[in-house]
Amino acid sequence: MDLQPNSEQLAVVEAVARIVEGLGHPRPAEPGYVLLSPEFAAAVEAGGFLDVARAEGYGLTEALMVVEALARSPVALEAGTTAVVAPGLGLAADLPRPITLIDSTSASPVRHLTGEGTAIIVTPAEVRVARAQDLAVTPVSSLYAYPLGRPGVDLTKAGERIGATPQEARRLWRLALGAEAVGLMQAALDVVVEHVKTRRQFGQPLGVFQAIQHRLSECEVVVRGGRMLVLEAAFRGTGAAAALAALHIQESAGRLNYETQQFHGAIGLTLEYPLHYWTYRLRLLQGELGGPAGQGLDGAEGLWPAGTPIAEDFVRED
Amino acid sequence: MEFNWTDEHRAFRGRLREVLARELPADWPRLSGYDNGSEYSVAFSRRFCPVLAAEGLLIPHWPKADGGGGLDAFHHWILGEEMWSNGEPRGYQYMSVNWVGPAILRFGTEEQKATHIPRICGGTVSYCQGFSEPEAGSDLAALTTRAIETDRGFSISGQKIWTSAASFADFCILLARTGPEAKAPISVFIVPMDTPGVTVRRIPSLQGERSLHEVFFDEVEVPAGAVLGPLNDGWSITRHVLANERIGAPRYALTWKGLNRALEHMRQDGRLKRETVRLEAARCEAAIRAARLMSLQVIDRRVKGLEVDAGVNAARYAMVMADRLVAEFLANNCSDLLFADVDPIIAAAFKRSNSMGIAAGAAEVQLNLISQHLLKLPRAGR
Lengths: 318, 382
Hints:
The complex is a heterodimer of chains A (about 325) and B (about 375). By secondary structure, chain A is α+β, with helices and mostly antiparallel strands. Chain A has a domain at about 165-305: Butyryl-CoA Dehydrogenase, subunit A, domain 3 (Up-down Bundle), CATH 1.20.140. Chain A contains 9 helices and 9 strands. A 4-stranded mixed β-sheet of chain A has the order 1-3-4-7, covered by helices on one side. A 3-stranded antiparallel β-sheet of chain A has the order 2-6-5, with no helix packed on it. Chain B folds into 3 domains: about 5-125, Butyryl-Coa Dehydrogenase, subunit A, domain 1 (Orthogonal Bundle), CATH 1.10.540.10; about 130-230, Butyryl-CoA Dehydrogenase, subunit A, domain 2 (Beta Barrel), CATH 2.40.110.10; about 245-375, Butyryl-CoA Dehydrogenase, subunit A, domain 3. Chain B has 12 helices and 8 strands. In chain B, strands 1, 2, 3, 4, 5, 6, 7 and 8 form an 8-stranded mixed β-sheet that branches. In chain B, helix 1 runs parallel beside helix 4 (about 75-85) and helix 9 packs antiparallel against helix 10 (about 310-335). Chain B is globular. The two termini of chain B are about 40 Å apart. At the A-B interface, helix 5, strand 9, helix 6, helix 7 and helix 9 of A face helix 8, helix 9, helix 10 and helix 12 of B.
């Protein structure tokens, strides 16, 4: 049992944090729903952070830590699929980027699907890899703080089938989704905590009011729990553990969205204030892969398969 | 990061299970009712703790020099998980090894150590905690029990309340103001419960036969040697005690076992096929796992000698959240299983959830501490 990140993991996370901090909180010339930054993307690429899972001595855990750290940036940069899912499925490192994930059964627009790069398509029966340019992508404009696109082809026939199973793809997807959502939640929490320390009403900072303190403290608890569940699920390698982690995190996302918005008041509703860069990405992740019900039912299937007695012993995996 | 136990930890859990299988009667859940204060449970714990001590399983995590096994704090946690999931057959003696002993070892005089430590190590002594008062619950600083210095030591007068185990404990670890002023400093006393002037009254409760009491101190004479630690510095000891107590007990272990047993009942009768039930159950499972991981992370910090920060309060609050979810799941989906004559373990897990957010410090106090120490939010008036 060793539940603290080691010095090398901390060094990777700190290096990503430096890039994120270097960016500051950029104010785009025109307020917009999505914040993109070629400079930020280039700095992350140059550092090799999205390839950490392929590096000697590193792996899935470090990749998830990178994804969480990158999500704390207001910039929407694809990281989860490139750093976690693609290497996990054994795909080559030189696939054109960004790499995106598509659930063939979902009608929702796809994050980062712009017609460039590579798409991993998860169907109920198989996993396929296609060039994004072959998917007849239509850009979708929305409040969500991701670039979004909708594919215009039959996804069950697009690209080439690969050997990985849909179950394995969904396991990795849930881990990547979980790590990204934890980063978004942490960033939104950090921003609102700073806000309630400095915003004064009734002659004192908002943060002295216990109604606010308690609700933000509950946010802190669920974010910490979600982070540990993702890391443990990555270690265990089971689909059920990944589904439970994603379930816990997607259910926490609603709380984080509401509380961080609420304690900002109206300023948090404006495009000039950066909160939405985190909370609106979080809103999209909250419903991905079928939302909490999708994760919960898959997790239940792994934990309690039909016809198998349920042991009372809680020490099942460790 | 490593989420698996070492072979040593696994072997330790295995030994505990062997001893439990050997010592607990087959119908232990029904005999004990998982009620630590029942006549049966208390009598059993008085036989069982010395057995654990003889097996080297009572205080495995204490230093060898103090009579322990010199093993890391994970052993203590594994011990707690195994005991708690079996309704805590040590009874209230878990407090002796969790916080009373460590406090005496750290702050006690040689005489106090000589009196108490061998008995704690042997599993032959139990304590109660004289902290809360009628007007000092979560606001412990409002306590008014007073210890006035006399020629022979101190004379203690006041009232404690909600005291678990008071009617059968040997000693009370008591907080009292040392001096006549309203805000006189606080000191800690170790008071034998058979001292003249100590009166205990049981408070019938939903939590068990002797889980709650009032304790009255009427000019109770104790020697100067009854003070634990420096006179007038009771808060440092209290903070130490509370840090050990807050996640001293892996309460989720019983909750988890109760949930699993309920799910097995529901699998057999077909209810577990319902999607809403499966989803709610998965939610409970995730919350329990999160609480356990956060607790283990705190223990890991102890093992590594790192400062134990307010992560301990976050872990405890996560346990409260998990317990609430499971209690709601049980009440929503299988109220028929909550009767003790159906399954005493499910019934006990459900019953314990009532006190989860109150025992060992109110859940809202944990939120205050998270707010101050993790979020660093300002405090009113500062």
